[in-house]
Amino acid sequence: MNFATDIAGIVLGGLAAGTVLFIVSVGLSVTMGLMGFVNLAHGAFAMFGGYVVVLAMNRAHFGFGVALAVSFIATAALSVVLERALYWPLYRSGELDQVLFTIGLIFIFIAGTTILVGPEHQTLQLPAALSGQLNLGFVRYRTYSVFLIVIGVLIALGIWLTFERTRIGGQIRATVDNRRMAESLGINVDRLFTITFAFGSGMAAIGGGLGAEFLGLDPQYPLKYLVYFLIAVSVGGLGSVIGVYYAALILGVLDFVLTLYLPKGGTIFIYVLTILILLARPQGLFGRKEL
Amino acid sequence: MTEVRLETQGLSRHFGALVAVQGIDFKLAAGARHALIGPNGAGKTTFINLLTGVLPPTHGRVLLGGRDITSTAQAGRVKLGIARTFQINRLFRGLSVLENVCIAVTERAGAAGSMFYPAGRRGDLIAEAMELLRTLKLADAARHRVSELPYGRQRLVELAIAIALKPEVLLLDEPAAGVPSAESHIILDAIERLPEHIAVLIIEHDMDVVFRFAKRITVMVSGAVFAEGTPREIEANPQVREVYLGQAAQGAFHG
Amino acid sequence: MASALQLRGVSAGYGETVVLEDIDLALACGECISVVGRNGVGKTTLLSTVMGHTTLHSGEVTLDGQSLNGMPCFRRALAGIGFVPQEREIFPSLSVRENLGIAARPGAWTHARVFELFPRLAERLDNMGNQLSGGEQQMLSIGRALLTNPTILLMDEPTEGLAPVIVEALTAVLARLAADSALSIILVEQNSRVALNFSPRTVILDKGRIVYDGESAPLRADPDRLAKLIGIVE
Amino acid sequence: MRRHRLRWWEALPWIAGIVFYFAFPDYLGFGCELLVTILFALSLDLALGYAGIITLGHAAFFGAGAYTVGMLASYNIWTEPITGLLLAALVAGAIGFLSGIVLLRTRGLTLLMLTLCIMALLEQAANMGAAYTGGFDGLPSLPIAPLFGVFDFSALYADTQYLFALAVLFVCFLFVRILVYSPFGQSLTGIRENVSRMHAIGSPVRRRLIVCYTISAALAGVAGGLLAQTTAYVNLAVLGLDRAATVLIVLILGGYGRLYGAFIGAVIYLALEHFLAQVYPTAWQLGLGLMLVVIALFARNGILGLAETLWRRYENRRGPS
Amino acid sequence: MSRRIITALAAAAAAAIAAGGATSQAQAQDVKIGLILPYTGPGAELSPQMDKAIDLYQKLHAAQIKPYKYTIIKRDSKAPNGAAAKVDTQELLTQNKVDVIAGYIYSPDAIASAPVITAGKRLAVIMNAGTAFITNLSPYFIRTSFTLWQSSYVMGEEAAKYLHAKTAVVAYTDYPPGKDALNAFKYAFEHNGGKVIDAIPAGGPEATPDFTPFFQRAKDEHPNVLFVFVPAGDQATAVVKTYAALGMKAAGTQLIGTGDIVPDNMLQGMGDAAVGLITVHHYNADLDNPQNKAFVAAWKKAYGPDSTPDFTSVGAYDGMAAITHAVHATKGKIDNAAAAVKSLEGWKFNSPQGPIEIDPKTRDIIMNEYLDQVYKGKDGKLHEKVLATFHAVKDQCKALAIGPCAPKK
User: Do residues A211 and A20 make contact, with C-beta atoms less than 8 angstroms apart?
Assistant: First the structure.
């Protein structure tokens, strides 16, 4: 083991962890940037998605890929129902009412999961092809990490292209820039938000499914990782896809490096980093708007 | 020659490449009634923000009574006697009219840091606030929540808060903006009754108001002083008319 | 001629403020009018009220006989109102291409037609919105509105802050737009020379009310009367 | 301006507090928890409700106070309860002051995240210093000296603790009440209602915010110290997000920026949680969650806000007739 | 055939006759048991395993319980901060007037409740909380679960003796049980000639960290063994998977740990990655003794073939056995805590985990520890086989009087 492979290992490990953080958080960033809605329950959709994946695989014996797709659709559908029925009336409320509402929603998700599935931890068995180690030529590394990084790049690229190259992506960015002007051009911002919300929740579901292997999955999920999602979003900058991607990867790699070389510090680094970044750039690394 | 209260020397403010205010030399005499007019985007509000210390200037100085206050913060300038109103109401909407004014009176009296007696016990401050409301004909609304008043009377509260600071220099940013014409006279009457020793600088679009009120007018265009003089001089100045009709070559001032 | 847009007894402002009082104004199909007045008299508010950005205190706004009251802004846009706002409001994180494209709707106005009108835009397609000069931003703002294929175009001080050469070029473009019989235009202008030359009909606002609604020609001929109406001189 | 005058119904909470003592001697442990939460929520209300400082890290100060009392008692340095609380206030206030200087430049989500991270840092520090703080296992069986040297803190029936906590809450409440109706309190309200106007009337806004944040932190420290004394126990959880989020929810539920929001919110939230959990220990969160969602959807500014709206509607209907 | 079962059968028969004869002299006497477990919050997934064991004990031993009748009052201890558990304990004692308290999954819950137990004078049976010094905090605590010192100490010895390891890296969850595990392992390992070259705190107990950086660090240090303690749950699965994924075995580092990294009810979810792991624990579901065979069979019959009891279940099951013993020994006066505790000092029981005893000096459990290895059975499922058994292991922290484990003066 030499220094170069060490570095490679660090980078790969950090990227893999950051990737899952990105996939879950990206929807939160965009919906918060678009509507300014403080959706603390975002992690609940990730959990819901994770459960769909695990149950689909363990009980209905779906393949991993199919389960992820099913989970995306199911979660997006659920989120649309909730958005139209419950979120919608709160758009004009203050952020504190939104906090109250979304915390309540988290409680309902936790209790609902406990009642319907049970409080136990769910395990996800990866397909054989994704287990074990992969020889990358310069280093051998765990296959699933490499898989996650590749998937993460594809998803980031996909979302980025959607954001940058499609009409709806342009409409989303335009609305984040200047909502009133976007509406003045005939863009239905409410519908745009519903679509974005559904997509963001679907992505969270995929993140929940992909991360279940090492983040675990139990009813406490939405609260356990809430802080990490918020950190990714605030460090990246609201409404910025690229921002969340870089923030998640930077946090993933730096956290990885620091825990590797200074494990006695525990999780202290991630908070120190966040504090320093936010004091230097209150709007986040890539944000334009004040948070 | 009256004494100069407020003066700027070569005052400029850039926002990136944009020059919002450029090299303004301006004098406001004690007890002045001075209007600042000019088309949209001329930099009038930016100028006010520079005077009050909301924005730091890129170049130049601000002097109050001969003293350089360029680096004095906003709160410090208020203490030295510069007060302002806003183009769009900035009131404590959830509080009563009296409370709105009391907050300002208390702050001015230096009592706002006191923690251990109820604000209601400072009868002197409340009486002062009530007196002010009476002169502005707001006494009957003293106990009403600001948000329940018609907009015209809210504008009066905006004015009352500024007067409560007992300023030497009062900067009024479109005091009658947004008020239905039927109500606008109450604002104008109030402005006319302002204590004489206060130097007043008013930004206003309504020329009736300007000509009725101002003894001196400064016209700003594209961030610079375009003309200055008595109302008669300004009215007679064909270039000013051109500016207002948009027919003067505005580009010249960008050059 | 049937009136495309009509305001009846409209009083409006922002929140509780009252900026416009008792406005009556009708615009026929294909007609162009200029609205002039000093700043602060409610010109922008007039356009905002048509667009649905303000609080309507009383009165009614109709488009092709259909009431717009209570209709959200984006539906008004879809119903055929195009908007060129005062500050241009280009989306800074979108490229020129995207600024034009995101809200484009099919119709007589195509990208090609817009580029023919503003060749400069075609050269700067890949620049970001915040990298444009003032004049280019204005072209983009107009092009963006045209591509939504409106029947009524609201333009708020398009010449403001532009160099004379650009104003001249823009004036030519405005003339071409005015000649398009399918398009009604309300042009808000502080530059009365541009305004009076733009349309045969001019509306003058003062203190939130219409003080003149009639032909432009007499005003062109009598600057003193114009100055009085606008309220610069007693 | 006469809002500061006492009204007859303001005696009700305290009467209820004393009645509770006699009526429910078996619930005094829960009662202590309730009183501590009310005090904690009250301290948050000062920062969030009055000065508009949105924080998700208020447990930092609660925990600082709890550990001050806990560590002094655990190492037998200082066990007197009243002065213990003053020391807790001092330490928490100092941390509030220092972090306030750094943090109160920012606003909104940034401020929220920064307060959260400061709290997490303290939690991690307490964990790393587990040799002194007891870490996750905490400092057990804290010896708290009898009150006035006479009244022992009984472990089984929390009667002394309850009355002590009630008295502390009463004193702190009086302090907060005086504060919010004072000129200083009024200027805080001014900052919340319109900060740019406060600048424009020459108010030293940042200094006021820091002072307010420090006082709020000190009160949170008292609440934390009180928890350590009434339960004779302190562990890492006093610094946790759980506690910070719960108190925020309690306050929003009750209604922030109102003196009694902390009371209403804490009573309803904790009572519901406590009794639902007895009836249905595995899924009581469902009921609690539903209540929060319903309140958020149908009330603006919590239960007190809802009550005010209904009251005004009733008055208006009654008015014309 | 175990004598115990015969006695049990005899007792059951006698009870049946007594009941059938309708001459029951002994009025069925109600024993109220207050059960405090985290039904919500991070510990929620552990509670059902214990609840099931408690129900199963009553079902299987209805005869022995007679003539007494158990009423179990459940309370949620919520987040593991001790606060809710303390109020629960207070209210169970003062409102519900329970005769005995049981449960406590998390140590803070037991620690915070200790003064209340002492003041309330009731027997309290700790069924899971593992911090060693807890039993010092109240004279009415007895523990039927385990401490980390028991398994980790043995693992430390055996890492040196059985596995002939010279160097070890320890990765532990950064909270008291983890630190106990570290200290116990290190003490035993280094007293047997090994050297702990690095001790890595790997995150907290609640959120599952990414173990890769910690294990990467361990891998780079090339120890003979990597000793890991994490709380049984999501983290255990992650540990095993990360170990396999980093290819540490091929690099010459054996993963060892307490049984927490291979909890019975999650073993199947770990897949082949777990095969070959070596752990020390006091229980696994494959233990080959008659009590366990009966216990597991009854469990699977009651809760389905996919459900498996684990060490938390056994702690609860043995706790119920202790209560039953005390109830009978005190002739139903179990609310006399001093007598109840006295009856349990030196109490011996043939548990599914093997013979156990309550240490009369410390009121803590004395139990067997097993050196286990995971293998893949013919049924395609994962099982554990016992490589070595260590009899009557005491809590070494108290035996060695280390730190807070030393009895209070």
Answer: yes
Higher pLDDT: B125 or E245? It is B125
Whether residues E135 and E92 share a domain: the answer is yes
Q: Where are the domains of chain A?
A: 2-280
Token readout for E110 is 């037991």
Number of B–D residue contacts, CB under 8 Å: 113
| Residue D144 CB-half CA count within 13 A | 34
Choose from C16, C54, C160 for mutation: most chain B CBs within 10 A: C16
**D231 CB within 8 Å of a chain E CB:** yes
What is E272-297 written as a DSSP string? Answer: GGGTT-EEEES--TT--SHHHHHHHH
Nearest to E82 among D138, D274, D281 (CB): D138
Among D113, D127, D297, select the one facing A234 at the smallest CB separation: D113
Chains adjacent to C (≥3 CB pairs closer than 8 angstroms): A, B
Shortest CA distance from A93: residue in chain D:
D300
User: Is residue E287 domain-resident?
Assistant: no
E225 and E332 part of one domain: no
Q: Do chains C and E touch (3 or more CB pairs under 8 A)?
A: no
Residue of chain B minimizing CA distance to D206: B75
Q: Report the topology of domain A2-280.
A: ABC transporter involved in vitamin B12 uptake, BtuC (1.10.3470)
Query: Residue D27 domain-assigned?
Result: yes
Chains D and C touch (3+ CB pairs under 8 A): no
CB distance E213–A13 less than 8 Å? yes
Percent of chain E with pLDDT over 90: 53
Classify A84 as helix, strand or coil: helix
ipTM: 0.87
Look over chain A and give the mean of its residue pLDDT values, rounded to a whole number: 88
Strand pairing of C66-67 and C55-63? Answer: antiparallel
The CATH number that applies at residue B177 is 3.40.50.300
Lowest mean pLDDT among A92-106, D28-42, D82-96, E2-16: E2-16
pLDDT (tens digit, 9 = 90+) per residue, E255-280? 999 988 888 888 888 888 889 999 99
Residue of D nearest to B129 (CA): D1
Fold adopted by C1-73+187-234:
Rossmann fold (3.40.50)
Calpha distance E37→E129 (Å, rounded): 10
β-bridge partners, E248: none
Domain count, chain B: 1
Number of domains in chain E: 2
Residue of D nearest to E95 (CA): D26
For residue B254, name the pLDDT band (cuts at 50, 70, 90): very low
In a mutagenesis test of the D interface, which of B115, B121, B166 is the best target, namely the one with the most D β-carbons within 10 Å? Answer: B115
Instruction: Find how far residue B147's CA is from the centre of its chain.
Output: 22
- Which of D26, D235, D243 comes nearest E82 by C-beta? D235
Give the range of the structural domain holding residue B219, as residue numbers without chain letter: 4-90+165-249
Q: Which residue of E has its CA nearest to D285?
A: E40
Instruction: Give the domain range for residue E347.
Output: 2-146+294-363
Averaged pLDDT, C191-203 = 90
Closest residue by Cα to residue A266 from B7, D127, D114: D127
Task: Kindly report whether the global pTM for this prediction surpasses the value 0.95.
Answer: no
Cα separation, B119 vs B112, whole angstroms: 9
Closest CA to D51 of D102, D95, D98, D111: D111
Whether residues C93 and A185 touch (CB distance < 8 A) is answered with: no
